[in-house]
Amino acid sequence: MPKLHVGIDVSLKAHHIQFMDEAGQNLASFQISNDPQGADTLIHKVLEITETKHMDRVVVGMEATANLGWHLAHYLKQQLEDHAPHLDAQIHVLNARRVARFKKAYDHLPKNDRIDAWVIADHLRFGRLPQAMTDTIRYEALQRLTRTRFHVMQTMSRDKTFFLNQLFLKFSGLRQDNPFSDTFGATSLAVIQELEPEQIAAMPLEDLVALLVDKSRNKFDDPKQIAQELQKVARRSFRLDKVMQDPVNLSLSVTLSVIQHMDAEVKKLDRAIARLMKAIPNTLESVKGIGPVYAAGIIAEVGDIRRFKNHNALAKYAGLVWNQYQSGEYEADETSRMRTGNKYLRYPENQ
């Protein structure tokens, strides 16, 4: 039986649709609004044309474009399963890079939404498609949390770098040789926020030791040694112009407040992730080096392991694939890893 290919170019307010048969003939081209009414219009037209053309299979494709097609993809899947069970309907979320490479074969094509939908439909016709959508909602729910965590951690990392750059202006020696193990620890931050380098340099050693004991809650094994090192870096620090002191201190204070707020939000996400993970049996955490955060991130991105044909398919999805360089009798022993695949599964290299 013939097959209907439905290419969808998604956007914020409207989607452009292209219907194409197996021979590449254009069957229809139209726009729908990006809302349930527009999705119902698309479903109605799919049912109408499959009945008219005696088709029993529908292949739908759209690019993964910033969640703009997420609602449509899930709505289509659910509605077609419920109201058109006679149709073998498959929905594919396509890699935009692969679609762009496919389009390069048509060097005469302009760039517009109608053409983009046509290219997607033609790409569907040639096959070699990713796994069709399955019931993945619980993995996608987990993914919302793990990807949000990823985003917050990336933002917090950038803000910490910004904070450290401002710290050099205020206290250059502390930025170069911090006697505290963690610049963002409670005692280190108390010193940064409450004292100027010249105050530390002039402070009696006993008073500085007492301050460190108080701020650290007496957790230092040798607070006197740390006090001496702190005074040493204070004495060899640049002195900041008084006109700059207040602006720099305010910049440090505001940036630190943002970092601390984000850190608190990460803890909220971790609790929510832990709750969702209880419903997903796994053994990942039994692997040395994989804790609850990494386990959740891997599961959220991989989803149902059965959607991969073999371990090679999973490795390719994760971007753990190395280029081959071979010509004639020569083949390189060492090649670079391909910079493709799911970036969230490459989380450590994005830190």
Structure, briefly:
The protein is elongated, with a radius of gyration of 29 Å. It has helices at residues 36-52, 70-83, 96-103, 113-126, 137-170, 172-176, 186-194, 197-202, 205-216, 223-235, 242-277, 292-302, 311-318, and strands at 3-9, 14-20, 26-33, 57-63, 88-94, 326-327, 330-331.
Can you walk me through this structure?
This protein is of the alpha/beta class. The chain is 53% helix and 11% strand. A 5-stranded mixed beta sheet has the order 3-2-1-4-5. The longest helix is centred in the C-terminal third of the chain and has 36 residues, at 242-277. The model has no long low-confidence stretch (mean pLDDT 91).
**Which sequence of strands runs across the widest sheet?**
3-2-1-4-5
Arithmetic mean of pLDDT = 91
Give the topology string: H per helix, E per strand: EEEHEHEHHHHHHHHHHHEE
Overall strand count: 7
Radius of gyration: 29 Å
Low-confidence stretches: none
Report on the biggest sheet. Answer: 5 strands, mixed
Number of helices: 13
Shape: elongated
Helix content: 40-55%
Overall structural class, as computed from helix and strand content, comes to alpha/beta
What portion of the residues fall into strands of 2 or more residues? 5-15%
* Amino-to-carboxy terminus distance: 50 Å
